[in-house]
Design brief:
4-stranded mixed sheet, homodimer, alpha/beta, Rossmann fold, globular, 39% helix, Four Helix Bundle (Hemerythrin (Met), subunit A)
Chain lengths: 356, 356
């Protein structure tokens, strides 16, 4: 089942008895791996965005459950698991893959709890590793499906970072970009910087440099101008949570790009595995939107760019309504409008892509 | 003719024999006045954006002509004037007020050249001071016209900085905001930060703090989200050049906001004096758009935010088509669609606002 090409870079790795996470807050200039030997350290890394991106958060949480069981004995097995679970569940509200992975982890726990703490931990580790591998494999499939929507010479715009760094590996939106590039269907990538935390400028550029895919960095303000000049042929972005009707929560600014793409008849694709679809959220209105500290706006890399104490609003995500989405590229194929219907079909079709 | 309320802060001032410009590149943390005793220093300040904003560039260039004539004798009067004129004209391509002021300055020169260099300089100084005072007065009138378009409780979004700092004083877009606030028709201001150079975060916040007008700072990416949440009632922006048909060049990102405002039925106002209208540009396609160094994108306050050598595109302005503009608020009144027609009418009506 696992793709033999699995040479993909991953922002997380299991080493002996602990999880290591690439600290994405200090990229692109410094490559530091955080050694997470406690669930608190995993939770903190998720909260601080050392690891970010819905699929990567999900896989990290899976390993976080394993870390939480390290050293547990049979008596405190249940308490340890529950405490770890709650700690991780409370880190970030919007990305549904977090909750999705934790629910799967709970199923693994329930199946093995009678065997004792050590058996639970062993089962969780095997499951987390399979989840990690399956995520990469999902993204490769997703990328290849997406490449079929591209044509030679296409210039694609992407927002934030939905690359290897945001997933177990290979990436969702950048997975599509990688597959399109390999298929000779891509000329270059427009990378918008993605304020406030500059994941485009810091992370997507870093990944494209590694993949030797041509790109140009622009401010978020430039997207309308690029489209009105006819310089953008495709948009592809990731997702933090997709509602049952196709409404998509993603990094703040995504909605703006979708509105612009609609005006300029540029296809607007969302790339995400089925695990990002939350059928419990009927529409985008049901998706909780995280509001983060104003300091992320008033400061850039620690430098104060506004008057001291300037009040700022910092919604981390916005919701793009289904009507603005040309298609959702998933690991089981391309979902086209009407999205509510094609999402239902995708879940009703047996799939091997979600290990339990 | 001059408003007796003229207590407005101005980013430029004439002191004895030279021009002083507030260095806006180091705001909001440092207030430094640059002493410009040569036309090269004035040109450099315009190019480096120490002074920016179409009306402020125009008034600075007027004083730049005076500085250029300092110490000239009758023999080199013509050469000095021409050299200064060309130097200033070559600084920035998009803001039409630069060329407009320089053309007016040439008329002053032509009227007085027979009287010798000293008389030319004296006449230019008197004219520049009148131009400066008239710009402030224009903005006060413009602001009061704009306030009539506002209703109590309005939350207005503005982009970049079209305030006192961008003009001779009082501001255009922020002039409207000041007048609306004074008239009790404004609840608060949404300030988008305006990458790459953060004029919103650095300058508009600074001005609103001084005026004690409530505001919240957001990233440029947030505008779509704010509108979809129903949190924006009005948009008002400045302009660097308005074509004869109403197409408006303004800071990059303006077009994106106009598209969003159109989708959400939020009135989108451009605030600018008639001197920003260039009837020689038939449409926005005729307006030259300045492309600035990529380093403005890859660096924030000198901090490198992208991989070393990352290629970046940096268009400084974009063009908002007339069809997306609800009205242009000018110093002679509010111009409504069809804009081509109302612009023609405005110029055909005698006005005392443009001193020659």
């Amino acid at each position: 089942m696992i793709d033999t090409r699995m040479d993909a870079f991953s922002p997380l790795r299991w080493r002996d008895d602990h999880l290591q996470l690439l600290d994405q807050t200090v990229l692109p200039h410094t490559e530091t791996w955080l050694e997470c030997r406690t669930p608190e350290l995993v939770a903190d890394a998720i909260r601080r965005l050392s690891v970010r991106g819905a699929p990567a958060i999900g896989v990290s949480a899976a390993f976080g459950l394993v870390v939480g069981m390290t050293g547990a004995d049979d008596e405190d097995c249940a308490a340890r698991f529950d405490d770890t679970w709650q700690l991780l569940a409370g880190t970030r509200p919007t990305a549904v893959n977090l909750r999705w992975a934790l629910e799967l982890g709970r199923e693994v726990y329930e199946r093995h709890r009678a065997e004792g703490a050590a058996a639970v931990r062993t089962a969780l580790l095997a499951w987390a590793q399979e989840l990690h591998a399956a995520d990469i494999e999902s993204n490769r499939r997703l990328g290849d499906y997406g490449a079929e929507l591209f044509e030679a010479g296409n210039r694609v715009l992407t927002h934030c970072n939905a690359g290897a760094l945001a997933t177990g590996g290979y990436g969702t939106a950048i997975g599509v970009i990688q597959s399109s590039w390999a298929a000779g269907r891509l000329a270059m990538v427009w990378v918008d910087e993605t304020r406030p935390l500059l994941q485009g400028a810091r992370l997507t550029t870093w990944e494209l440099e590694r993949a030797a895919i041509p790109y140009r960095l622009v401010t978020d303000n430039s997207v309308g101008s690029l489209m009105s000049r006819g310089l953008v042929d495709r948009v592809v972005v990731g997702a933090d949570r997709i509602a049952a009707n196709g409404d998509t929560a993603n990094k703040i600014g995504t909605y703006t790009i979708a509105v612009l793409a609609d005006r300029h008849d540029v296809p607007f694709y969302v790339a995400a595995p089925l695990s990002t679809i939350d059928r419990q959220s009927a529409t985008g209105a049901a998706i909780p939107i995280e509001e983060r500290a104003g300091e992320e706006v008033t400061h850039v890399f620690g430098v104060d760019v506004a008057p001291e104490g300037a009040p700022a609003a910092n919604f981390a995500f916005d919701v793009t309504p289904a009507e603005l989405i040309t298609a959702i590229i998933t690991d089981v194929g391309v979902l086209k409008p009407p999205l509510a219907q094609s999402i239902t079909q995708a879940f009703d079709t047996p799939s091997t892509s979600i290990p339990v």
